[in-house]
Amino acid sequence: RPAARQLVSHRGVLVNGKSVNLASYQIKAGDAITLSEKAQKQLRVQEALTVAEQHDMTPSWVEVDSKKFSGVFKAVPDRADLPSDINEALIVELYSK
């Protein structure tokens, strides 16, 4: 996750063709996410895509085209679609401060 945040903060991610530099940027269903040409050349990005493809790690609510370094956020996931090890109480506690 730190590497992904850095990729965003260095303007390596485009949402609907526009550069984004905030890791907290809220995407909406139907948004197209692509990587900048500079980010596409990074070895760690290429390796991450290869590993994700090999282990079929793409969630059902995201459509990925690894050859184009792009994807589409299809829909907001239901709670059942998320990993079970998320502790909602800790999230609520963090944001209620």
TrEMBL record:
- Supply the CDD domains for this chain: S4 (cd00165)
Database matches in InterPro entries: S4_RNA-bd, S4_RNA-bd_sf
One family from Pfam that matches here is: S4
The superkingdom of the source organism is Bacteria
Residues annotated as domain RNA-binding S4 = 1-33
Naming one, the record's GO cellular component terms include:
ribosome
Q: What are this entry's molecular-function GO terms?
A: rRNA binding
Keywords, ordered alphabetically = Ribonucleoprotein, Ribosomal protein, RNA-binding, rRNA-binding
| Record family assignment | Belongs to the universal ribosomal protein uS4 family.
- The name under which this protein is listed is Small ribosomal subunit protein uS4
